[in-house]
Design goal:
The protein is mostly helical. Helices cover 56% and strands 8% of the residues. The strands form two sheets. Strands 1-2-3 form a three-stranded parallel sheet. Helix 10 links the parallel strand 4 and strand 5. The radius of gyration is 22 Å and the shape is elongated. It starts with a strand and ends in a 7-residue tail after the last helix. The structure holds iron/sulfur cluster. Iron/sulfur cluster binds next to helix 12, helix 13 and helix 14.
Length: 336
């Protein structure tokens, strides 16, 4: 039986952190290992430029970084196709064709785009670029070029998939049944708060632990995590519910350990410094195999490049088939 193609991806604007690990990477490895799917992972450099057009070096430098993060968490290039968006010009071609099938008003109403424009006021001011407003159209091209059937997303990304489905339906209605309509799958990954308690973890917020962080960096970051501010002395009764150290113990420590942290904190029997040190040790241990694998690829960048070149070649073959069918349907197949 043909395996369903599952499509995921990331914008290469920075190294990946534990938020990505719990939010999507673990799940991607699980799906890869289940053997039930044909997974494709897109490194979306063109999409990253929509809000980093003035920092091309940042996007370029992070393509390999993100690829190394994938490989170090267990994405296996023999089972998952990893490829670079800009190296597949068919995606850009499809984006142009699809731009006739969606109105500006519809893009402006897209809740995900609306929220993101609001968040990027510092970059765009009152006037958003054509490229950023239209990124759901290029995302529809990404999905359909590779015949993505299942798209794992968080709830906030659902409007983007709906936008893609609308484009597919309109295309198929006008030109004939050519494109595959994708299905969104709500990813059951966890959303991790930052070390400062912020709902989002990210580089700009300075509250993230990266998969590539060294032991020293992890320890330093954990030591600066936000704790119960009312706790001054060790015997003050604490509230672990408002402490990020307790929050991370629940993710990285054993169940019993996390339970003890909570009980001792509430009873004023635990100091914050040893509590943080214990957490740092657990995070370091959990990320150790990832860091070690990453260190190997850092020493062998040529292997990473080879994986990207081969994955991109394979993905491009699929995109070339799609564009051929699309052009035939649109009567653009001149001279055979
Ligand atoms: Fe947080 Fe641990 Fe301090 Fe309690 S003892 S406030 S859980 S760091």
């Amino acid at each position: 039986m043909k395996k369903k193609r599952i499509l995921t991806g990331d914008r290469p604007t920075g190294r990946l952190h534990i938020g990505h690990y719990f939010g999507s990477l673990k799940k991607r490895v699980e799906m890869q290992e289940s053997g039930e799917y044909d997974p494709y992972i897109l490194i979306a450099d063109v999409q990253a430029l929509t809000d980093n057009f003035n920092h091309p070096e940042k996007v370029r430098n992070n393509v390999r970084e993100v690829a190394m993060d994938y490989l170090s968490v267990g994405i296996d290039p023999k089972k998952t196709t990893i490829y670079i968006q800009s190296m597949i010009p068919e995606v850009a071609e499809l984006t142009v064709f699809y731009s006739n099938l969606v109105t500006i008003a519809r893009l402006q109403r897209n809740p995900t785009v609306k929220t993101e424009i609001e968040q990027k006021k510092d970059l765009f001011g009152e006037s958003v670029t054509y490229g950023f407003l239209g990124y759901p159209v290029s995302q529809a091209a990404d999905i359909t070029a590779f015949e993505g059937e299942l798209i794992p997303v968080g709830e906030d990304q659902l409007p983007l998939i709906e936008q893609c489905r609308e484009i597919v339906r309109k295309f198929n209605r006008i030109y004939g049944e050519v494109l595959t309509e994708p299905e969104a799958v709500l990813s059951s990954g966890k959303r991790i708060k930052g070390l400062d308690g912020n709902e989002k973890m990210g580089k700009s917020l300075g509250n993230a632990i990266y998969l590539s962080d060294s032991e020293e960096e992890i320890t330093k970051k954990v030591m600066s995590a936000v704790t119960d501010p009312n706790r001054i002395r060790k015997d003050d009764l604490g509230n672990p519910n408002i402490c990020m150290v307790a929050y991370y113990h629940n993710l990285f420590s054993s169940k019993e350990e996390a339970k003890t942290v909570c009980e001792e904190c509430k009873a004023g029997k635990r100091g914050c410094v040893p509590c943080k040190k214990q957490l740092a040790k657990n995070i370091v241990n959990e990320l150790k195999p990832i860091r070690e694998k990453r260190a190997y690829y850092e020493l062998h960048p040529e292997e990473v490049d080879k994986i990207l070149i081969e994955g991109t070649k394979k993905a491009q073959k699929v995109a070339q088939e799609t564009i051929k069918k699309v052009k035939q349907a649109m009567k653009l197949d001149y001279f055979g």
